[in-house]
Amino acid sequence: MINHLTILLIGFSVFALVILLGAYWFFLPDMRKSLPGKLACSALIVCLILLQLAHYHHFAFNTDLLSYRVYGVLLMFAPPTFYFFTRVVILPDPDYPWWHLLHLIPLGISFLVPLTHLPLFAFSIGSLYVGWSVAKVLQLRGQHARFKFELFFFAMFALMAVMALTLGLVLPVLPHAIYYLLYTNAISVAVLLITAALIFFPHLLGDIRDLTEAAYSNTKLANVDIALKRDALDHAMRSEHLYQNEELNLSTLAEVVDLTPHQLSELINTEFNVGFSKFVREHRVRAAKTLLSTDTTSSILAISMMTGFRTQSSFYSAFKELTGMSPGAYRKHYSNQT
Predict the structure, then answer these.
(1) Is the dihedral of CA 48, 53, 54, 60 positive or negative?
(2) What's the per-residue H, E or C state across 191-242?
(3) pTM here?
């Protein structure tokens, strides 16, 4: 029974990973999409897909994967791809100088390490990268109170990585069947968490981007009239209703208020104590609240479109995040009040 459920989860994770890869390349506008970032994301996802397909082979045909070096090489390939992609997520302007190729040295060594030691070697290297990513998250100075959910998201994956390291450490005394079961389902649960997060919190990636940019950027506002630009920004959003444009992004709004994107991002973070994505959501939800209480003929879907939300699901998510209730519940509550 457990094996059959695991096979179903393998199928889900492989399918979801393919969808996530396509979404990252062609959609998800809130992610930083440099060519190195795309390659890093692709390498990590392909590695996870190959691992899950190998695990399927074990459960379907009782293959002892730990007896094959190619499986060990796959295990060793995961840590550097995790590192390269994590840089894209955590750092605001990641670069990849040539010496980053040194991170691939363990992959080359994996062809020489004794096969019995290879999994422990791979999981140990992976733990070092997890430690690096946790340290970087902890450096997000002054942002923890504003981005509790996003930091929880990081913490969950750090915990799962620590569990993977523990799995590698106990592997010498752990039955192989138990190892395959635990590691396969750990990958599946991680993919499930990512998929659920992007479905229920579609603004998550934008908030993570804002979080890292606010934490690591140096001031760009030394010679800027803060009060004047704040008034210009307020006019653009409240009077010109730029939030209604579902294509509104940092660069577009920065051009309107005559700032660079980095300057606008810092201005919003310092003056409004939120990131750009949440700043726009707040204006959209404020406008939606007005329409829900005054326009009784328009549907909730129509109101979501009038206030700049791409989809009804993102509207529901943002509205509940900022008001604590759904749009329908808010309209009903307001009508009962009047």
Answers:
(1) positive
(2) HHHHHHHHHHCCCHHHHHHHHHHHHHCCCCCCCCCHHHHHHHHHHHHHCCCH
(3) 0.78
Give residue 22's domain range: 2-202
Residue range 69-127, pLDDT digits in tens: 999 999 999 999 989 988 887 776 777 788 888 999 988 889 888 998 888 888 888 88
- Are 122 and 163 contained in the same domain? yes
| Separation of alpha carbons 304 and 312, rounded Å | 6
Distance, in Å, from the CA atom of 28 to the CA atom of 204, rounded to the nearest integer, reads 11
CA-closest candidate to residue 287, choices 309, 272, 314? 309
Quick one: 162 and 88 in the same domain? yes
What does the alpha-carbon distance between residue 22 and residue 28 come to, in Å, rounded to a whole number? 10
Residue 214 confidence class, pLDDT cut points 50, 70, 90 = low
Shared domain check, 152 and 22: yes
Report the b/e string of 237-259 with b at 16+ CB within 10 A.
beeeebbbeeebebeebbebbeb
> Taking a C-beta distance cutoff of 8 angstroms, is the pair 318, 285 a contact?
yes
Q: Strand, coil or helix: what is 117? A: helix
Select from 191, 163, 193, 154 the least CA-distant residue to 47.
191
- Do 174 and 78 fall into the same domain? yes
